[in-house]
Design brief:
Strand order of the largest sheet: 1-2
Oligomer: single chain
Order of helices and strands: HHHEHHEHH
Radius of gyration: 20 Å
């Protein structure tokens, strides 16, 4: 029981950390990119964020020096006293480095379905072929 709890905690931690919730996807490169692609939370989180914010046209003010400021090219387009603004959809695109797109939702749904089928299959196999009684 203790081992199962530890493994579940590790999986939840990896899922939260590498799904894009804590570390944004544009910063996961090299070896860490693998963890981003294998965590199911990435596909859920991307789908939720893009569905909620991609077409949101409410105004967001960019802070000087932020990724959003650079994305809007505010240093070259605004006067010193003017606020540089963009939409919530623009902010979402800049914040996630262009990696979260609504066009990925069909792929995300398919991959999550694959994870569910694999989990069910492995559970069925474990219940049928592994003897837990220790005899």
């Amino acid at each position: 029981m203790a081992t199962a709890q530890i493994l579940a905690s590790v999986f939840i931690g990896l899922n939260n950390f590498f799904s894009g919730l804590i570390v944004r996807p544009q910063f996961m490169t090299g070896l860490f990119a693998i963890t981003y692609w294998i965590t199911p939370g990435h596909y859920v989180y991307e789908g939720m964020i893009t569905s909620l914010f991609e077409d949101d046209n409410r105004t967001v003010v960019a802070d000087e020096g932020s990724d959003f400021w650079d994305y809007l090219d505010c240093g070259n387009t605004t006067a010193v006293d003017d606020d540089c603004t963009g939409s919530v959809g623009d902010f979402m695109f800049a914040f996630y480095g262009g990696k979260f797109l609504r066009e990925h939702n069909a792929r995300n749904f398919g991959i999550l379905g694959g994870y569910l089928v694999l989990a069910r299959l492995l559970t069925w196999m474990a219940l049928n072929y592994i003897n837990f009684s220790g005899t």
